[in-house]
Structure formats: C-alpha cells, structure tokens
Amino acid sequence: MTACIVGWAHTPFGKLENETVESLVVRVATDALIDAGLGPDDVDEILLGHFNAGFSPQDFTASLVLQADPRLRFKPATRVENACATGSAAVHQAVRAVKAGDARIVLVVGVEQMTRTPGPEIGKNLLKASYLPEDGDTPAGFAGVFGKIAHSYFQRWGDQSDALAAIAAKNHKNGVDNPYAQMRKDFGFEFCRTESEKNPFVAGPLKRTDCSLVSDGAAALVVTDVATALKLNKAVAFRGTAHVQDFLPMSKRDILKFEGCTKAWGKALAEAGIALSDLSFVETHDCFTVAELIEYEAMGLVPEGQGARAVLEGWTLKDGKLPVNPSGGLKSKGHPIGATGVSMHVLSSMQLMDQAGGIQVKGAKLGGIFNMGGAAVANYVSVLERLR
C-alpha cells in the first residue's frame, strides 16, 4: 500500500444546465479539499481527467482547477485523457506520483459536460474513442460499435437478451438509492426485456435500456501517502492497481474476450494478494449492458461464454455473492466521460467507509473497480481497502 484516498466530492450526474466545465471543476475541487481537512497550500500536484473530444469549446482545461483558490496558482497541473477511462487514468497517475515520492498530496478532478452538444455531434465525439479507419462510419456511433459486439456475442454464445435485461434492471434498481444518479427509476426486468416505443432498439440487439446516459458531472478526490493519511480523518488505501493497454483496432483481437480487462484484473489482484472472491463488491464499466456481461467473464467470475449465469442466478445482485455496480453503474448513474473513473473511486471509498447510504453493501471490506476506455482498449483496475 503506497497511497490512500483521504477526501472526496461528487456532483449529481445529469443535465446540469446551470453549470459549466469550469464551475463543476471548481465545485468539486473545493469540496474535496474541505472533506479531506486540507487546504490549497497542502496540494503538491493537480491532475484533471477531461476527455472533451469536442464536447467543450474550452480544450485547455488543466488550469481551470486553479480557479478554485488563488493559493493553487503555480502548482503543477496536468490534464489526463484515455477515452472513457480518463478518470481512472488521472487517479492512477496520482498514485504513481505519491509512490515515486514526487508528491505528498495530489488533487484529482474528473469532469465532462456532454448534454449541451447536439445529438449527432455527441455520436461523432464518442466515436473518436474507436479506431476510425474501421469504425468511423458505424451507424449509431459508439452504441453501434457495442451493438456489433453484442451481435457477435449472440452468434457465438446464443441469445443473451434475458441476461442483458437483467443487468439493466439490476443497475436501475440499484441506482434508485444513489443520490448522484442521473436516472433513479426501477424499470424492472420486463420493461428492459421488451422492445417498446419507450425502449426501442438502438443498435443490433441493444435497446435504449442497454445504453449508458449522456451526462454532465464532476467528481474529485485527494490522494496522499499512507503516513499522512493515518493522521487525517479517513484513509482508503490502494491495495492493488493495474493499467493494461490493448490494440485499438478490434480486428487485431478477439473482441469478445476483453483480454486487457482480464490481464488488468490479474495484475491488480496479485499485487493486492487476494482472489476475486475476497472482494465485497465491484464497480465495473457498464457503458453498455453487454460490456458488463463480458466483464463477468474477463474478471474471472464465470468461464467464457457463461456471463449470463452471474446475473440470472443472482450472483451480482446487491445481496449476491459479488455485488456488481451497487451504485447503479454507468447505466443508472450516468457517464460523463472524464468524471466516470473518479466517481467509481469516490463511491467505492464511500462504501468502504460505510458512508454509502442507500447503496451501501453491508460489511464492505474490499472493493474492486474496473474502468475501461474504448472497447476494452484502456483497462484500469483498482483494489481498495479501508485503513481507518
């Protein structure tokens, strides 16, 4: 254990009409430092996770964090980007800075504002996280990319419509009790399973309830070394971390295996000295329900092709043997790209501190996080444990 999370902040996710990228950044940066019991003078380094890709006209954003307090002026600030794993990329950079001794206290912020962008432009922006020579003309944007993945999975392993609906229903039910979630409504299995005017097919076998939401939002956390953390009010330690990058073109790999995800989980669990079964819960990247389905297999919860068992037999329910996405996941919570990975670490820390309210997993001791960019291209895993 080389680093700990000692404070955090989180805005609601959704359509935040009265906010800007700057106001969101300032809000969470200020609140995270207050939550940690630290001041701007204590910060050694700042990392901002911001995907952008056209969502915001302001594209040089690292220094926006300095707007939170004049005392942050002249601190090193860097914007980090790795597609939909941008938030976790910033978090892991903070851990590395602390581990290397380059910084004692690092402020990490993740932000995105997506809802002001017209619908067609949203699809174009998100497709920039794919390999454009192969996927640039995909109908329905990034949903179309995962629609092709779902279609291929169905061809190889049979119709998985029940499993996808069960994942969507689970995550929507969990999200009802998440005060930060964009969609706090329990749709139930039948609604998610059935095509309707309110739940049409979007791409391939994926319906609207299979797709995460376009969102605005921000989250922030403060990372420090263990010795410093133990002097503060709370300490959630990184017991294991891993980052694995895979080929961008899907044609260069078996896209149904998420091999980068598998390797990242293996490395992080080995560093933590635990097995997957030791985890109390997992927050995983359900940008689309088929992604969560394949991630069950990639993390080693079930054998290849048997992802449906994990949800249909209740293993991943909030009271199951390995609760997955007790927060409601991206499906319910929303997916403001740059904020997502930071949000996962904030909500997991809240779980481990027994401060998660209605989404609390009883007796949570160890939490696992998987955040990915693109179609399992950038793969980040964190294993967290409460120290105090």
TrEMBL record:
<dbReference type="InterPro" id="IPR016039">
    <property type="entry name" value="Thiolase-like"/>
</dbReference>
<dbReference type="GO" id="GO:0003988">
    <property type="term" value="F:acetyl-CoA C-acyltransferase activity"/>
</dbReference>
<protein>
    <submittedName>
        <fullName>Thiolase domain-containing protein</fullName>
    </submittedName>
</protein>
<dbReference type="InterPro" id="IPR002155">
    <property type="entry name" value="Thiolase"/>
</dbReference>
<dbReference type="Pfam" id="PF22691">
    <property type="entry name" value="Thiolase_C_1"/>
</dbReference>
<dbReference type="InterPro" id="IPR055140">
    <property type="entry name" value="Thiolase_C_2"/>
</dbReference>
<dbReference type="InterPro" id="IPR020616">
    <property type="entry name" value="Thiolase_N"/>
</dbReference>
<feature type="domain" description="Thiolase C-terminal">
    <location>
        <begin position="251"/>
        <end position="386"/>
    </location>
</feature>
<feature type="domain" description="Thiolase N-terminal">
    <location>
        <begin position="4"/>
        <end position="224"/>
    </location>
</feature>
<dbReference type="Pfam" id="PF00108">
    <property type="entry name" value="Thiolase_N"/>
</dbReference>
